[in-house]
Structures are given as C-alpha cells and as structure tokens.
Design goal:
heterodimer; A: 115 residues; Arc Repressor Mutant, subunit A; three-stranded antiparallel β-sheet; 4 helices; 3 strands; B: 901 residues; alpha+beta; 5 domains; twelve-stranded mixed β-sheet; six-stranded mixed beta barrel
C-alpha cells in the first residue's frame, strides 16, 4: 500500500528510468514480468508504482537492444511465464547507466541545494 | 528495429499476447490468495495491467516499418483486385510480358553484339591496326573473314611498333576434321604466338600458345581448343590434353583448353581450335600466304602501352608506315597499285568491344527492331492506361468518400499505383523469362550451316537495368496517370454526379480518346514498316536473278589431300564432272569457279583495243560447258562453251552478259569482239574473243544491280594456277537428299581422299536474304500485334462510349431514330478517332520509314501504295471492331434504357 501523503509516481517517470530499474531488478536473477513489476514496487517502498502494462513495451525494447534475453519457464505457483535475464551487454549497460544516474542526481542536487 | 522482427511481427504479437495472459493469470492467483473471489480477482488483475490492446499495439508499432507495412498492405490489396478480375489481369500481364519480352530480347542481342566489351583483360586497351587511308583500295587476294593486312606487314608491325606492350595477328580458317568423304569442319584460328598473352586469356586446362610455339616452318605445332569443342569432342575430359587432333590431315597436339567465356575477338563468331600462324603452310601448302605481300588475310590487334591513347598509337604507326610499306611492296604491282600502296598509313582503332561483321550487318536492323518493340510496348501501355482509367472511373465515388473523410491524396495514389506496380512487375518478370527464349530463337534464326554465328547471350546488369526500367516506365505511364486523374476531382463534385460518375465529361473522356488516337497512329507506323519490309523481301524473292535456283545443287570439292599437283587437277575435275553428269536423275552438271550469290567474287579491269575504258572493273567467272544450261541462264546470241572446241590450244574465248555488251560494245555486234584483262607490265595479256552473250545474272548479291560479267571456259584456264578447291553445279528434278549419296559415291570412286560438301542453290539464295527475312518476319509479327492491340483499344473505348450513352441513345430511339441511325452515329465517332489516328500515323510512318530506307529493296520509304494498303487494312479491322458495340447500341430497347435512370 502506498504511504499516505506520497502518491505513487506513475508512467511519467524520467525517460529511461524504467529501463534502468528493470535492468537492476534482473541483476538479481531471472524474473518474469509480474515479479519485476512487484519487485520494483516493493523495493521502492511503493513509491514507484509501475503500471504493469507499461512494463512490457519496455521489456520488448530492452530485448530488442539485446540487453536482456527471454525464455519461457514455470512460475512459483506453477504457471507458464516468460522469464527475462540480463545479458552481458545488459550488465555493462546497468553499470554505465547507474553511473550516469548518479551523475544526474548529483547535478540536480547541486542546483536544488546549492552549498 | 530489424527486418527479421518486421517479417515476424505477427508471431511476436502472439507471443506478447500469451505473455500478458500469463501475467494476468499469476496476478489473479495472487489476488485469490489474498482472499478475493475468482471473478473479482480477475477483474482486479486486469485493472492493474491496464489496456492490453494498447500495450500490444505499442509493441507492434515498435516492430513495424510503417512505410513498408502500408506498401505491403497496398500490394496485397492490389493482388486481391487482380484476383477478382482475372480476365483483366491476364490481358494486362500478357500484353506487358510480350512487350517487355520482345524489348529485352532485342536489347540482349544488341548488348551482346554492340555494347559489351570482350571477355578479356582490360579490353579498353585493345586496338585494331588497319590501314587508315585506303583512297584507291587494296589489290591482291583477300582470304578470311577479316582480311585487313598481309603477313609481311604484320611482321613489320611486330618488329617495329612502339605503341603496344604486345600485339598479335590472327586469321580464321575452316579446318577439315575428316580425311576423306563428306567434310566436317572445325572453326579454326591461326594466331601468332602473342595472341593469348596480349588478350590476357589464361588456359582453363593445360596451357595456351606462346611465342615459342609460333616459329616459321614449324612442322608439328600445338593446338588450343575452345571449351565448347572440348566438351563436344572430348566430353570435357582432362585426358584430351596431349591427344593428337587431325586438322586438314595434319596432326596437332592439344596442349590446352580456353575458358568457356572466351570466344575470340570477333563478336558473333566463336572458334573450335587455335593453332599457331606458322601452321598455315601445313594447310595451304604451296599456296601459303605467309610470304605473299599481296595476300590480305590477317587482322592485327595490339594492347596499348599504359598511358597511350589510340591517337598516339596512330601517329606512331603513321610515322613508321612509309618504311614498312616500302619494305613489303609486292613486286607484281604495276605503277598505279604501287603508288597507292606506298601511300598507305596504318592506324589504330579502339577494339575493346571486338570486331564484328555481324555488328556491321545487324546493328541498324537491331536498333530499328528495338524501336519497333518499344512502340509495341507503348501501344500496350496506352491500352492498359485506358483500361485502368475505366476501372479508376468506376471507383471514383469510393475515392471521393475516402478523400472526404480525410485520406491524403498521396496515400490513395500510392494505393492505386500498387496495383499497376504489381501488373508491371509480374509482366516484366514474365517478359524477362520470355526474352531468354526469344533471343535464343533470334540467334537460331540467324544461324545457318554455312554461316555459324555465335552470340554470347548472358544476363548482365545492363539487361536487368533495362528490364527494370521498362517495368517502371510502363507502370508510371499506365498507372500514375489514371490514379492522379481520379484523385484530382474534388469529392463534392464526384459525389454529386451520382451513380453516373463525372468522368464522361468531355475533358476526362478526351484523354481516353487521345490514347486511342495515339494507339492507332503508332500501330499504323508499325504496320507500314512491316509491309515495307515484307514487300522488300518479296521484291527480292520474286526478282529474276538471271538463273533458276530451284533444282540446282552445289557440290564443293576439296582435293588438297588427293596428292595431285596443280597441273594434274583439270583432268580430274573433268572426270568428276562427267561422272556426276552421267548419274541417273541428273539433267546437267558443270564446273564453276564462282557460284552466284555465294559472296565470293573475282574481278579485274579490262582493256579494249589497248585502252582501258571508263569504269573498267568487270566481274569474272570460269565455268565449263553446260554451266548456262545448268543454271538456267539463257544464251541470248552466239554459242555456249564447247569442251571439244574450246581447249588450251584453241583461241581464248569468252561469253559476256548483256550489261557487258551495253557498257562496252553499245550499238555493235558483240560476237567476234575481243578484250584483254589488265595484267602487270611484262605479264602476258591474252586476247579473249567474245563468242556468246548470256542474259544478265546476279553475281555476289541479289540486291546489286546487274553489272558486266565475263565468263571464261574452265578448260582454257592456266593449269598451273588450278586451285585444289572446286565447285560443281548440277541440275536435277529429284529430291536433293536422294542425289547426294550418289554424287558422294561417284566422287569417292575417282579418289577417296576428296572431301565433299553439299549446298542447295535455293538455300544459298535464302541465306543471302537472311537479314531481309528477319526484318520481314519480326516487323510483320510486331505490326500485326500492334494492330491487334490498337483494335482492342478502340473496341474498348467504343463499348465504353455506348454504355455511357445508353440513356441518350434510348431517348433518341424513343424519339424515332431507327437502328441504322444509331449504328451510323457510333460508327461516325469511331471513324473520327480512326481517321485522326491514321492521319497522325501516316505522317509519322513516312518519317520513320526514312530511317529504314537502306534496308528496303525496290521501294521508296514513302511508298504511297504501301501506306494506303496499311491504312485500309488497319481501318478495316478497326471499323469491324467498332461495329460490334454499334450493333449492340442499336439493339437497345429504348424503354429498358430509359427505365434504368
């Protein structure tokens, strides 16, 4: 459940942020779309509520760029599900984009809170 | 975005749908676990996932190249339209296939004989060395297909030129593969040692010839065979290398095979075997031309040194010409010939595309045929444009609705073009396939036993580009115009016009009329052209050549292997001739040095009373008694030769033709007159007494005007000069193939090593008219095709008019017009279109025929009767075609026609 007073941020996340979050989630191990969506929600303490539907075009885009790969597997509760895993290229992207993200955050912070 | 994704985007979409479904299932399970009812669980899961279709569409879009996608959809739509109208599709594709196929076939031939460079190394560096200035011509004997230089001159060039990194000489020869009986010929090349290295052609198997193989006096030279010969004679076996090949009775060791693509330097010919030039005396013996400075029998090619242009090479050759011609001056030449000879200058001519007599004879006919087939295609396009216009009109309301609800005009034009593109592409593909067959048919048409031609037909980028361009242009012509037309009307107007459409307004319908007028005009041009060629051929076939070719058989004899020396030959010839003449079924037989229309000739200047008359060059022939009877050439006055009276020791006599008499003895009694042949000073000049006058006869060519000819009795020829080749002409009513075995047997009885070859006079005459036959056949076919297409076009437009005017015609009939009035009205309109087309076409035909005037015989390009015949024929067929719709109009029931509105 979202915390009171802090409404969840929806689809209007920063461009590319969702991609970064997906990559980060998959860095922990292969997962299917449902797991990824909940993982992002849970790990952000429900601040970043992903609209589940919007996850799939992002997954498709990442797979198209060969950063992630997919395969059909069986879910925890015995249902067929399409699993995604990080490729070596995806790992590299994750490192690069994380660094980039840190830079942006630092830069934005410098402006918002000048020393 | 990848093309792979694009083509499998539907599979991808299914995949995503399954994935989303799986997501829902998991979420539903979770919700149930949280305590919801299954229905609520499912609904909550769906809410959480959001709009699934939107997600799928977003992914689908990512997989799509939108231009390709819409083009693909347009094409599928076009294909569906074509399937719905199979009749239209078949007519459209067939007419395009014929047009494109004919164009491509002719272009392929042109490409092979004119445009393509030789398949050798750096062909643009190759030049041919010829005498650049021959104001008064060369004299001497001319042997081979390209007798441009003599061997002594070639040796001078080889030793003194500085312009070429290397150069070679070659000559062609027919080698006999058999050692007796009926001849079997291989097409041979005598090549100097530098032939292959200059061209840069490597051996496919074994080795090629080198300068070391070409040493004067070589006794057992090697031979290199062509790929085709290797396959044919040795089944492509590598063991052919080292085998011995008998050519003209001499053994040659095969040392190599040339690549399949190499056909020599003469476009339109190929070869079977190449042997060194030093082997020439083996075949020709004492008649070898290697040391004869007046025997023109080789052609010389050089490869320019890097950086040299043909012009620089020419000036280099010109600077060394005087000394070369001085060194090689033939001692037999008189003062006049010598002066000419010493003035000759050699020059270099670009030869990267090879040399070709086929090109000389067929280049302009082929361009003309290309123009003809181009017109046929244009007429077919006009026809298609008309059909498409009619179809577009029928869709006018649909288009108007789409425009009104916001479709862009470009999008609709693109969609309509897709259908035309489909027709054009299928038509062009069928045409390209048809062309392969057609061009082979054309080559086969030109191929005769005596004149083996070889054209390396291959598909190169030029042909593909040509066919693709044709398809694109045709598509634009017949597709774009109707599409632009139909989208050009403002939607309001189109819809207001109601079910009748607005396209029968004058402006719109005017386009279709213009198209028909153009079709009629262009087809008149083609019909006139066809008729001109057909009549030229007819003129040539029906003219009186001065002999009767039916029933005459030509027997070619080769006595080189008989072992007889020149002086012993005349009695052998006489023996053979009398044996052949005595065979059952043979009416008469005679020797002939030259057979008319065979292409060979013998001429010289004559001297009358010690003086050379104006234009003194006369064609000669040496024949035995009965020649005139055999050929069916009447003796007008005087007598025939007589084997008993006209002998070596009796007075030299001659029979001349009527033209000879008219030219040199006009107004006198020719019998008893005498003339001499101009010989070099010091040589004897016997006096020939005229004993008879024969009717005029053609000599080298049916197209030539009758010229003066002198005949001498074979029995009075100088025995020392007797050639081991001889021809017998014989006349018989029996079928040719029943005579040839008898003749062969008779010849073999005399000497089994004599080689015999047969040819009927009729075939020889036919072959000499090959080009005319080709033009008449093809232009006749295309002319008929064009007329047919134009007639269909006219029929279509008239039917359309009648359908459009049903209402009006109904009113007219209701008001009292009778059927004849209606027919007259429709026919008047058709006549108007036809008349306009014929007038325009007549003017165009007269102008176009001028371009073909050199290919005509016995006709003027603007021949009025031909023009009239073509116009009447075309008009007749076209009026017949419009009569059907007219008749249909007159059978209208006025009440029915009126009720429809």
């Amino acid at each position: 459940m979202p915390k009171r007073g802090t409404p969840p941020i929806h689809g209007d996340m920063l461009q590319g942020t969702l991609d970064l979050l997906i990559l980060r989630t998959l860095a922990l191990g292969p997962a299917h779309g449902h797991t990824i969506a909940y993982a992002i929600e849970r790990q952000s303490d429900d601040v970043l509520a992903v609209e589940h539907g919007s996850l799939y075009p992002a997954l498709h885009r990442l797979e198209d760029r060969k950063w992630i790969a997919s395969f059909w597997g069986t879910s925890e509760n015995n249902r067929k599900a399409r699993y995604y895993r990080l490729t070596p290229a995806g790992k590299k992207q994750l490192t690069e984009q994380t660094n980039r993200w840190d830079e942006i955050v630092r830069a934005v912070n410098r402006i918002l809170r000048p020393a | 975005m990848s093309l792979k994704r694009f083509f499998f985007r539907n599979r991808w979409d299914d995949e995503r749908a399954r994935e989303l479904e799986a997501h829902l299932a998991i979420e539903t399970d979770d919700n149930i676990a949280r305590g919801m009812t299954p229905e609520d669980a499912r609904l909550a899961a769906e809410r959480k996932l959001g709009n699934r279709t939107l997600v799928r569409e977003e992914i689908y879009q990512m997989n799509t190249i939108s231009f390709l996608d819409s083009a693909w959809r347009d094409l599928r739509y076009g294909a569906r339209l074509l399937r719905l109208n199979p009749g239209f599709a078949i007519v459209a594709i067939l007419s395009l296939a014929l047009g494109v196929g004919a164009n491509t076939a002719i272009f392929q031939l042109l490409d092979a004989v004119r445009l393509r460079t030789l398949p050798v190394n750096d062909p643009q560096q190759l030049v041919e060395v010829r005498i650049g200035n021959t104001p008064n011509g060369r004299t001497g004997s001319f042997i081979s297909r390209r007798p441009t230089l003599t061997n002594p001159l070639w040796e001078q060039i080889r030793d003194h030129q500085q312009a070429f990194s290397s150069a070679f000489a070659y000559s062609n020869v027919g080698f006999n593969l058999t050692t007796g009986g009926e001849a079997r010929y291989a097409q041979g090349v005598w090549a100097s040692g530098e032939f292959f290295s200059t061209l840069g052609v490597p051996a496919l198997v074994g080795r090629t010839l080198t300068p070391a193989d070409d040493r004067r006096g070589c006794s057992a030279p090697p031979a290199v065979v062509s790929y085709g010969f290797w396959q044919r004679e040795y089944g492509g076996s590598p063991s052919a290398i080292g085998r011995s090949l008998m050519l003209d009775g001499h053994a040659y060791d095969i040392v190599g095979v040339t690549p399949a693509s190499f056909f020599g330097v003469e476009v339109g010919r190929t070869f079977d075997v190449v042997v060194p030039l030093c082997g020439e005396p083996l075949s020709r013996g004492a008649r070898s031309a290697l040391d004869k400075p007046d025997s023109w029998f080789v052609a010389v090619f050089g490869r320019l040194k890097p950086g040299w242009t043909p012009e620089q090479a020419t000036s280099n050759l010109a600077s060394i010409s005087p000394s070369m011609f001085k060194t090689t001056l033939p001692p037999r030449y008189g003062a006049e010939d010598a002066k000419n000879y010493l003035n000759f200058k050699l020059a270099a001519f670009p030869a990267g595309t090879g040399v070709s007599s086929l090109r000389r004879n067929y280049e302009s006919p082929l361009w003309l045929l290309l123009a003809t087939t181009g017109l046929v295609l244009l007429i077919a396009c006009a026809n298609l444009a008309n059909l498409m216009l009619a179809r577009a009109t029928a869709r006018e309301r649909e288009v108007a609705v789409r425009l009104a609800i916001g479709a862009s005009r470009g999008r609709i034009v693109r969609q309509m073009l897709a259908e035309s593109l489909l027709i054009a592409a299928i038509g062009a593909a069928c045409g390209a396939a048809l062309a392969q067959w057609l061009s082979r048919f054309l080559v086969e048409f030109l191929n005769t036993d005596n004149n083996r031609i070889f054209v390396a037909l291959s598909l190169d980028w030029r042909i593909f580009a040509f066919t693709a361009a044709l398809a694109a242009v045709t598509c634009l012509i017949f597709g774009l115009m109707p599409a632009i037309r139909v989208t050009g009307t403002s939607p309001g107007v189109a819809m207001k016009a109601g079910s009748r459409g607005s396209t029968d307004t004058h402006e719109r319908f005017g386009l279709r009329r213009t198209l028909v007028v153009m079709q009629v005009a262009l087809s008149l041009v083609l019909v006139v052209g066809a008729l001109l060629f057909v009549r030229s051929l007819r003129n040539l076939m029906t003219l009186d050549p001065g002999f009767i070719e039916d029933g005459v058989l030509i027997v070619n004899l080769d006595l080189r292997r008989s072992g007889a020396i020149a002086e012993q030959l005349p009695p052998i010839f006489e023996d053979i001739t009398s044996r052949v003449a005595a065979l059952p079924g043979i009416q008469s037989a005679a020797q002939a040095f030259i057979v008319p229309v065979s292409g060979s000739g013998w001429n010289n200047s004559i001297v009358i009373n010690g003086a050379k008359p104006k234009s003194a060059v006369v064609n000669f022939n040496s024949v035995s008694a009965n020649y005139f009877r055999t050929m069916g050439t009447p003796i007008v006055t005087g007598r025939d030769f007589d084997d008993r009276h006209d002998t070596l020791t009796s007075e030299k006599v001659a029979i001349v033709t009527e033209s000879f008499v008219k030219k040199y003895f006009a107004g006198q009694n020719p019998i008893g007159q005498a003339f001499q042949i101009e010989e070099p000073p010091g040589a004897p000049r016997p006096l020939y007494r005229i004993v008879g006058v024969a009717k005029d006869t053609k000599y080298t060519d049916l197209r030539e005007a009758f010229g003066p000819i002198g005949f001498f009795p074979a029995a009075q020829g100088d025995p020392k000069d007797t050639s081991p080749f001889m021809q017998i002409v014989l006349r018989s009513n029996a079928p040719m193939n029943s005579i040839t075995p008898q003749v062969s047997a008779a010849v073999t009885q005399v000497n089994p090593s004599i080689i015999v070859q047969f040819q009927s006079m009729k075939d020889q005459v036919r072959e000499s008219l090959l080009r005319e036959r080709l033009m008449a056949t093809l232009s006749g076919f295309f002319g008929a095709l064009a007329g047919l297409i134009a007639t269909i076009g006219l029929y279509g437009v008239m039917s359309y008019t009648v359908a459009r005017r049903r209402n009006e015609i109904g009113i007219r009939m209701a008001l009292g017009a009778d059927r004849r009035d209606v027919v007259r009205m429709v026919m008047r309109e058709a006549g108007l279109l036809l008349g306009a087309g014929l007038v325009v076409g007549g003017v165009m035909a007269v102008m176009a025929a001028r371009a073909a005037s050199t290919l005509l015989f016995g006709l003027q390009p603007g021949d009025p009767s031909t023009l009239a015949m073509s116009a009447v024929a075309l008009a007749g067929v076209a009026m017949l075609a419009s009569y059907l719709p007219a008749l249909r109009a007159s059978r209208l029931e006025p009440t029915e026609a009126l009720r429809e509105e």
